[in-house]
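Hi R.,

Here's the chain you asked about this morning:
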Amino acid sequence: MTTTPTETIRDFYGKLASGDAAGALGLMAPDIQWTTMWHYKVEGRGPGPVAEGLFKPLMAEWTSFSLVPTEFVSEGETVVSLGDFKGVHRVTGKTAEARYAHVWTVSDGKITIFRQYIDTLAIARARV
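And here is the predicted structure, written out as tokens:
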């Protein structure tokens, strides 16, 4: 059964929400391009660099966090998800709540490009 790009992205968020990071990484193309606005930097392409440059530091910095998509807009292989990030900073104990827009490209059922737009000021305030 073929899934739509939006179904693939919904599956990605579902895997993250259930703690299945390996499953989320498995939805990525081997040469995925990942761009973030945070201080986390993904060096190179592929699920390995995403795990090392984003997933591991994100889990180390926040005692808990969630990404809750509230809306999906799609056109062809492109999916835009709008939603809410909420996290508790491990050092300060402060809660961050930030709106985000994620722009995804899905080809043949695999995520090939990710671009993040998020309220970085809301995140920064939780760090101090």
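One quick note: Strands lie at 28-35, 62-75, 78-89, 95-107, 110-118.

Cheers,
M.
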